[in-house]
């Protein structure tokens, strides 16, 4: 059952720098939720990005089996004064084409939690090369590294867990479990129209905290981590989209800033490597219950990604410092 306009929700506002507010004292602002089926319903500053008015927005996508072969259904955009649910089904290619300049723009920062599959769906379904993201999943790992904490290979924090962390939001997002249960029961959940109250609420909840999280995270990152966050954002956006190591058509990876270059002690650049796996050999890389791939991850300080059920099925994507990526490549080639 769809509910009548206007739709509204609360967005936590970031406090001004230096403001005397505790973490749990976030200011809540009641904002409208707009279901968008035509480009004219979107803000002009989003549709026509410019260096004079740079934006930071929460961003996410919903769909059926979200990847290159799935169906992208909704693109959520969270501004501080409104949330826009871009209906890719009702608006179709024309609406998504109107969003393309902003989603590819360096003047619009898209704050997202785990950008890989969203980027893949946008690229293969609408030809959009997602760019200039701040991935809160990557940012969290960088902050943990700064503070001397280690994590298990491939153990990235979920969005629900990040929101619950009192250092960031301290909010329990129990509704996410409800939606996940519904998706298991009916994978076509996001395709139904008109959007139900639950669909609008769930889609809004996935982005309304992101602008606030952005400010909390950026305050915690040091200069080196900020650069690494930008680099990894570029690499993670393209990793499931490219078929080989020729990715010159994608946005350039940010170079090492001058202020991080010291005589004899400069940070190592992160790179992305795509490794083709011969037919029938992926099982040797993964191993029994994932034992083989886990041991490889433990021996290399690099992220090793496999397409799995959603594919691509014959490739391994490696992201990390150059030396560690080359080490992972050598081990992987030895397995096949």
Count, helices: 12
Architecture per CATH nomenclature, i.e. the level-2 architecture of the largest domain: 2-Layer Sandwich
User: CATH first level of the largest domain: which class?
Assistant: Alpha Beta
Strand content: 15-25%
What is the total number of structural domains?
A: 2
Given helix and strand content, the structural type is: alpha/beta
The CATH topology of the largest domain is Nucleotidyltransferase, domain 5
Rounded to an integer in angstroms, the radius of gyration calculated over CA atoms is 20 Å
- Going across the biggest sheet, name each strand in turn: 1-2-5-4-3-6-7
Order of H and E elements: EEHEEEHEHEHHHHHHEHHEEH
* Biggest sheet details: 7 strands, mixed
Low-confidence stretches: 17-21
**CA(first)-CA(last) distance:** 53 Å
The chain-level mean pLDDT equals: 91
CATH superfamily of the largest domain: Ribonuclease H-like superfamily/Ribonuclease H
Helix content: 25-40%
**Strands, count:** 10
Shape: globular
């Amino acid at each position: 059952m769809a509910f009548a306009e206007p739709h509204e929700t609360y967005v936590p506002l970031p406090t001004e720098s230096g403001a005397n507010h505790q973490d749990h004292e976030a200011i809540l602002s009641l904002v409208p939720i707009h279901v968008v089926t035509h480009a004219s319903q979107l803000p002009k500053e989003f549709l026509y990005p410019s260096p004079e008015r740079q934006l930071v927005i929460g961003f996410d996508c919903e769909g059926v089996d979200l990847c290159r072969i799935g169906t992208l259904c909704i693109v959520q955009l969270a501004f501080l004064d409104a949330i826009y649910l871009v209906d890719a089904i009702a608006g179709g290619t024309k609406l998504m084409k109107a969003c393309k300049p902003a989603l590819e723009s360096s003047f619009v920062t898209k704050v997202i939690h785990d950008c890989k599959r969203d980027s893949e769906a946008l690229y293969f379904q609408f030809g959009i090369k997602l760019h200039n993201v701040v991935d809160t999943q990557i940012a969290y790992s960088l902050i943990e590294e700064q503070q001397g904490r280690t994590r298990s290979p491939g153990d990235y924090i979920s969005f629900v867990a990040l929101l619950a962390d009192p250092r960031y939001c301290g909010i329990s997002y129990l509704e996410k479990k409800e939606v996940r249960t519904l998706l298991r029961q009916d994978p076509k959940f996001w395709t139904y129209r008109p959007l139900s109250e639950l669909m609008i609420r769930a889609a809004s909840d996935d982005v309304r905290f992101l602008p606030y999280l952005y400010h909390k995270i950026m305050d915690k990152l040091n200069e080196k981590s900020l650069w690494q966050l930008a680099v990894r954002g570029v690499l993670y956006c393209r990793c499931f989209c490219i078929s080989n190591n020729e990715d010159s058509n994608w946005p350039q990876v940010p170079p090492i800033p001058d202020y991080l270059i010291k005589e004899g002690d400069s940070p190592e650049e992160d790179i992305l490597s795509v490794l083709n796996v011969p037919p029938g050999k992926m099982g040797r890389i993964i191993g029994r219950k994932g034992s083989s791939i886990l041991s490889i991850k433990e021996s290399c300080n690099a992220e090793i990604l496999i397409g799995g059920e959603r594919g691509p099925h014959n490739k391994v994507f490696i992201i990390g410092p150059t030396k560690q990526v080359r080490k992972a490549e050598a081990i992987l080639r030895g397995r096949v």
